[in-house]
Amino acid sequence: MERLGDDELGLVLTSVVRWRDRKSCARVCRRWRRVEALTRSALRVLDPHYLPRFLPRFPNLTALEAATPISDADLDLIARSCPDLESLNLNAHRSLIELDEEPQGVEPPDVTDAGLCAISICCRKLKNISLRRRKGVGDVGAIELAKHAKGLSSLDLSWCSKVTDRAVGAFCALNSLMVLCLRGCPLVTDSGLACLANGPLSRSLRVLDVSECDQITDLGVCLLRHIPCLEELSLADCGPMITDVGGIAIASIVGLQSLDLSWLINLSDATLIALARNCRNMVEINVTGCELVTGVGILSYSNHPALKILVLASCYGVSANDVERMMLASPSLRYVGLDKSLRGWMPSSVQEKLSHICRIDWL
């Protein structure tokens, strides 16, 4: 091994994938430690406090992850040290939110628009970025990201509560963006959806999550039919202003494969019937809490060619008999989530029979 040059040793270490094995390699000697760092492509940061000490050792990183509080200064260091980053995962743990609720606790510094701007300017190869629960991120940073990261394919800003329609409007020019998650962004409205539906993004977007955006109405949902390539859509918990008007409109997106309509209390059988008739590629649908849905809507999925996952918790208009009939007529089903209140109305013999068709969870 001593005869191997750095290039040859680098090729050997590149084939070592498991991080424990790479760690063992780095302990062989100083040279191996140096070459291992040069060939490292991914890194998880557990304590950003030590970033200045170790980050310069890894100049060729393409993926970095940090779930703890991370400051703008830390992001500036990352931006300068890792210009080839393609994936940046800064999804914060829920514990970060709990820190905000501690009246006597000192909140650690966390990323804001300034840090995101530094990343955007220096790391122009970014393809995937996730910023879940980073409350300091708002429109300025998001717009700067859209301006510089032209090759972005996946963006997750879930629970970044400062993000508004202004940022969404900037995303519409990203013709390579395929995944956009805006869950829990309460300032995103129908105007934001209009931007998505009318810009170049409408030709590339495959996955859209706007669940818990409770200012969205039928007006915005109807515009989503202008995103013809959409395959996964979540409108869960968007509130009572989404009705069958919007539900029937999205049924015109024939390529839909996964749809979450949970807790849209003003959706009824009319939406399910339209979806069953038009969306023949639908693999998964969740109508938890859609209280107006009855057996009529569920039975419209009998003999559906693609449906594998159906979730019906808290659908009190659906009977045990409706579920049995639908499942017996749906050979493609692999999973059904049912309200636990139905269990007492379904004979054990029927439960056993249905369990041989697919997995059943009582929710």
Describe this structure in words.
This protein has 16 helices and 13 strands. It is globular, with a radius of gyration of 24 Å. Helix content is 36%, strand content 12%. It has three domains: 1-40, Monooxygenase (Up-down Bundle), CATH 1.20.1280; 41-216, Leucine-rich repeat, LRR (right-handed beta-alpha superhelix); 236-363, Ribonuclease Inhibitor (Leucine-rich repeat, LRR (right-handed beta-alpha superhelix), Alpha-Beta Horseshoe). Helix 8 packs parallel to helix 9 (165-171). The N and C termini lie far apart (58 Å). Strand 9, helix 13 and strand 10 form a beta-alpha-beta unit. With 363 residues, it is an alpha/beta fold.
Summary, kept brief:
By secondary structure, the protein is α/β, with parallel strands linked by helices. Helix content is 36%, strand content 12%.
